[in-house]
Amino acid sequence: MKSKYTFVYNADLETLLDSLIERLKERISQSSIRENLQFVVFGGGYGRGEGGIYESSNGATLYNDLDFFVLANDDASNADLNEIDSFFATLSQEFSEMVKIDVDFSKAVKVSYASARMDIMSWREMALCRNVVFGDLQSFEKIFILNSDKTEVVESEIMKLAMNRFSGLLYASQKLFEKAEISESDADFIARNINKALFASGDIYLAKSNNLPFKISSRLLEIQRGYYPEDIKIAYKNATDFKAFPKIHFSKSDYEYELKSAFALLKKAYFENKKYLQKRNFKRRIKDFITNIKLLKDFAKFKKLTIFADPKSTLSLIAIELIENAKTLDKSAIADYKNIWNKLS
Hints:
By secondary structure, this protein is α/β, with parallel strands linked by helices. Helix content is 63%, strand content 9%. The chain is built from 17 helices and 7 strands. Strands 1, 4, 5, 6 and 7 form a 5-stranded mixed β-sheet that branches. A two-stranded antiparallel sheet has the order 2-3. α8 (155-177) runs antiparallel to α9 and α9 crosses α11 (230-244). The mean pLDDT is 94.
């Protein structure tokens, strides 16, 4: 039987997510915010039918976060948006306890704002997901689907993806080397970020080829039958397997090897496609220049004083240098890095 939420059908998890969505609809319909709310869209892996199933001695459970996008009417006031955000913040806590993983609702934005940003990967994926759990699906499709199908992912979004995945490997390195033993949560964090880096390595090649399908299963098929490096094909298959059925272990030496391999692959994808990743239009160059001026002192801490480069590219290079010296890093270097990353992500 085909699952609505996961790679492989699991009756208990299907029932759990069906129940959560029904409860979500009910809570919205009984609330005062419904008058200013136009759509709530189920996104992420489970929203597109590619969520993970974590199997342990306690049985099968959900693994990834649940992500919902919240879109308000265009005539909603700032006070209305704040009320919507407050409602979903409460619901997030309640639902997270219900399903034992994080249930995240985006900050409420107006429909016109989201529809004008189909070149941003998160909004594009929301539109292509089409999993509207509140609101009229036909209205949603008229607003979003045609736009998203005609809109390519811009290079700066893929550069941002690379920056975030290098950052994830850096933070995973910190957890790996800062203690003699790793906890269950540390192991989970490390494994997630290793596999996210493997995905990003393949996605960079796909995006450069102007062929980045919506679903992971479709991306894997494109990579396997395309003229892509063999190590990318193997890594993408391994990451897909992990996403479907994540497995966590506690061997520091194994994680050190896996992280080193993922880092080498991401670095290869980055440098082989660097010209593509650094493409920017004039408007983006101006924005980046202003950002670099604001970050001048921050970048100077890492002896990076370039003000005409893409700041995400600069931070990626810093991450690469830090990961290569991860065993001897002090906490202040990580704190300085996170400060810049938080401003750019």
